[in-house]
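step: validate -> pass
step: tokenize input -> pass
step: predict -> running
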Amino acid sequence: MLYDAKTVVARLVNRTPVLLSELYKKQPAWKEQYAFQIDAKGLVSYNNSFEDLMKDIEKYKKKDYRILILSPSATRGKRIAKNLQDNDVMAYFTENREQPLKPGEVRISVGRMETGFEIPECHLLVIAEGDIFTSKELKKRKKLPK
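step: predict -> pass
step: emit ->
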């Protein structure tokens, strides 16, 4: 580590940091002004089932969720958008991150995320490409010669 905890607190105390934590615990040294809690749910993997993905997207669209699908590359993102469109799911690909998501909208964009999540209070669903297409294969161990 570059700095100990006391040094980090001393450097940040006169600034306006934003702290994110999965497990919140109030720290008196931070002198926080506001605390917000956002409840998020993890997603279950679709295990290469594009049909299940489409069913979920339609279910969330009916609830006016904003749906964002992240893909590591533009080429793959465009392919996901086309596959959804070919199956009558209104979706589009864009690299424009400035435009806010609208309720009921399905946007595919470039981005990396290990797993997606849902924030029910915000009607937001973020799906990572890895949630859709699982490419985790078990590798066989090589046996060492005796």
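step: describe -> The CA atoms of residues 2 and 53 lie 44 Å apart.
step: cleanup -> pass
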